Known about the structure:
The chain is α+β, with helices and mostly antiparallel strands. The chain has helices at 2-16, 18-55, 85-94, 130-133, 146-150, 160-166, 205-208, 215-223, 241-255, 268-310, 312-320, 325-361, 373-399, 403-408; strands at 61-66, 100-106, 110-114, 117-121, 124-126, 138-141, 155-158, 177-180, 183-191, 197-198, 201-202, 211-214, 230-234, 262-266. The chain is built from 14 helices and 14 strands.
Amino acid sequence: xxxxxxxxxxxxxxxxxxxxxxxxxxxxxxxxxxxxxxxxxxxxxxxxxxxxxxxxxxxxxxxxxxxxxxxxxxxxxxxxxxxxxxxxxxxxxxxxxxxxxxxxxxxxxxxxxxxxxxxxxxxxxxxxxxxxxxxxxxxxxxxxxxxxxxxxxxxxxxxxxxxxxxxxxxxxxxxxxxxxxxxxxxxxxxxxxxxxxxxxxxxxxxxxxxxxxxxxxxxxxxxxxxxxxxxxxxxxxxxxxxxxxxxxxxxxxxxxxxxxxxxxxxxxxxxxxxxxxxxxxxxxxxxxxxxxxxxxxxxxxxxxxxxxxxxxxxxxxxxxxxxxxxxxxxxxxxxxxxxxxxxxxxxxxxxxxxxxxxxxxxxxxxxxxxxxxxxxxxxxxxxxxxxxxxxxxxxxxxxxxxxxxxxxxx
Length: 410
């Protein structure tokens, strides 16, 4: 009951000096607002990267590229056939951890023509697994199947941008023909339209320009050999990557007669670099917010020390009529904590407004977390803790005043 009375009295004292209390809150308000807003922006950045990373294959994706043989093998490099469709078949048959495998036969930049319309294109020969490896989704028709590859059929799956450039609005592309290097291909599928705004542009725009034909068709009609540009793989679990790499190396070294003219790339390094960048942002911006809160705490302590000086005679009267030192200590501690907590609430509200403004005026604003709940809770708790610690010394000083000396104070 006594604690409740002291708490009410402390809150009443803060309320009776609104302007002074508000001035002492400013540091806390700005500190909490900057902390919450910073975390909202960083979480938006994380979301941007996560969406882009997953839409382009995720951490489970592995790429095998051709590269020059090391210097000590240059004189026997001709013994290797290079990356071929046969490598794809060998990996598919003997590396069970590679759950999805697709060659990529790049026929180079060319023109795709339909009637009197034409557009630049870079068709790639693939198998059905590329749809899962790189997360492509068919909006109309179907994707390339195993039989299309087996029989080297002249079929094609195109992206939404290709449809926009080659067809009239509302026209159905399925079943129509387009020509690549004067060879007719039947459109069997249209990919969904991908939109993901990043730095003021569509980061997934490349997927809308996609044009896929069967790998065997690309090899036979355009390359004239069995070579591939790269091999793309995907494991079912990230944990399998560690065992997958040596298996791939063994298979490829056998097929390439021991020549190391290939490079196996995972996305772990890319993910690690981003995580390091995320930590750097969090620590640096969090440090700025922490300094703001510290400055706010010092401001509260200064105000409370001034309040103690103003109320020395009042403290003496209260002690003379029976108030204990602990009562005085608790009252001043409550006042400093209330100032800080209320400042924390205002800071959270200010951060929400600030994030709303940022989401409107900066690129990728749609991905900013407008209500970072964990950050708000942390900011609120931290503001209360700052107020508590800032009030300890002034409260202790008030509680230690001698009642007789305090009554004599003018």
